[in-house]
Amino acid sequence: MRPTPSTVPPQAAAPGPSLAERYRQVRTATERLAAPLSAEDCCVQSMPDASPVKWHLAHTTWFFETFILEPHEPGFHPFDPAFRVFFNSYYQGVGPQHPRPQRGLITRPALETVRAWRAEVDVRMERLLEGIEADGPVARLLELGLQHEQQHQELIVTDIKHLLWCNPGWPTYHPALPEALARDGLHKGGVPAQQWQRIEGGLAQVGHAGAGFAFDNELPRHTVYVQPCELGTRPVNNAQYLAFIEDGGYRHPALWLAEGWDWLRSQHIAHPLYWRQDAQGWSEFTLAGARPLAPAQPVAHLSYYEADAYARWAGARLPTEAEWEVAAAGLGTTDGHFADAGVLHPLPAAAGADATGLQQMFGDVWEWTQSSYAPYPGFAPAVGAVGEYNGKFMVNQYVLRGGSCATPAGHVRASYRNFFPTGARWQFSGLRLARDG
Questions:
Q1: What distance in Å separates the CA atoms of residue 435 and residue 314, rounded to the nearest whole number?
Q2: Using only C-alpha atoms, what is the Rg of the chain?
Q3: Nearest to residue 289, comparing CAs of 208, 379, 400, 174?
């Protein structure tokens, strides 16, 4: 699971939903994601990096009970004192935690008890929100909690995908998804050629700027120097990546970082996660079940090692996170294909006359960069328990940018920094090429 953010900067008041309405919208979106699942689906943990859906439902509720209700609700009482340990993730300042690899062993409380807890906390939260300032400290902490829950919404999608993939029957998550994929033209032909967009070099400002929410790892805004370069106008697609496989990309150690070569050999990896080859050709597991591999679809579920090896094979490299951010900020929009579309799978880039400039910078697939996840100059974590997560994870991870088809719309921005270890593949992670210029 990606670490929980640590702090929220001051936020200017703006027209929009009330605090209670926004809280209700985010919490309801989480319940919708869990609705197609059985109690058995919600309890199982498919690997240590993933968590059961029941745990996600509980942990996000734990956040609001622990960090908002406990210090601010008159006459506070916990729903169940044991939940403070069961559903704490990494907050050492709050107290002990149940071991992460054993979250799937928490068969009790039952799913219906977790749902009852969510419902009670929601009632109490909405009552509390009636009397707080729209731009005060509780409101800012609430926004952190909602952004945190949106991160877990994405994890629900990716964790349940991994769980269902482990089932030899490759079951579907939602019966409406196959129709949605067909409607959105996932299997249409016309693979656009790789093109390049020049990024002028020079001094640039990166990091969050202006009003609105940002995680602390996006701060402070600072100046960097970016060399002139070129970025691919779209993410690398399945057709391109299949060419890498067919050219023996997974068999040539010269293409791989030494650690990556050891990784693929020890785990017998020869293609992206969720791909399968049989007599009928290549197929891919999706949340709609097995689908023929779509050539124009952005390749997804790559590790950093695979993204780096492909870029080297292609005579290019991965962009730095500064290059990516400068290019994305220049678009002036964060429009893209996100989870709210209901497809929960990457879609092809535009072809023909519509294929101009940088495409799919936001949504579809997270894009690996070559940048290690490290603090910006002047970074300092917040004081207290909510300051624990981001800073202490700034080691042995790489930055990804842009969001994915499982990310809630409106959750990401040009400065948003996601991060995972080099071997992580269960997220919708892909790549965009860069080259010096």
A1: 10
A2: 22
A3: 174
End-to-end CA, the chain: 36
Cα distance between residue 110 and residue 305, in whole Å: 39
Q: How far is CA 54 from CA 78, 104, 159, 366, 380, in A?
A: 19, 9, 11, 25, 33
Pairing of strands 429-430, 222-226: unpaired
State the CATH architecture for 177-436. Answer: Alpha-Beta Complex (3.90)
Per-residue pLDDT of 169-196, as tens digits, reads 999 998 777 776 766 555 455 667 789 9
Query: Measured over all CA atoms, what is the biggest interatomic distance in the chain, rounded to whole angstroms?
Result: 66
Residue 288: enclosing H or E segment and its boundaries? none
16: tokens are 């929009």
Q: What are the residue ranges spanned by the domains of the chain?
A: 19-166, 177-436
Compute how many other C-beta atoms are within 10 angstroms of the C-beta atom of residue 297: 26
**Cis peptide bond prior to 192, omega within 30° of 0:** no
Are the CB atoms for 357 and 233 separated by under 8 Å?
yes
Task: Specify the pLDDT at position 354.
Answer: 66
Alpha helices of 65-206 — where are they, by DSSP H? 70-72, 83-86, 111-129, 137-166, 177-183
Backbone angles phi, psi at 248, to 5 degrees: 85, 25
Neighbours of 170 (CB within 10 A): 17
DSSP symbols for 168-209: TT---S-TTHHHHHHHTTTT----PPP-EEEE--EEEEES--
Using DSSP bridges, classify how beta strands 229-232 and 434-436 pair: parallel, antiparallel or unpaired.
antiparallel
Residues facing residue 230 across a β-bridge: 198, 435
Which residues make beta-bridge pairs with 337? 363
Q: Which of 291, 280, 295, 193 is nearest to 243 (CA)?
A: 295
CB 161 within 8 A of CB 287: yes
- DSSP symbol at 344: -
pLDDT band at 350 (very low <50, low <70, confident <90, very high): confident
CATH class, domain 19-166, is: mainly alpha
**Is-above-0.70 flag for pTM?**
yes
* CA distance linking residue 132 with residue 124, whole number of Å: 13
Nearest 5 degrees, angle CA 401-CA 404-CA 408?
110
CA-wise closest residue to 80 among 121, 49, 36, 29: 121
Within 235-279, where are the H helices?
A: 238-246, 258-267
Evaluate whether 367 touches 322 at the Cβ level (below 8 Å).
no
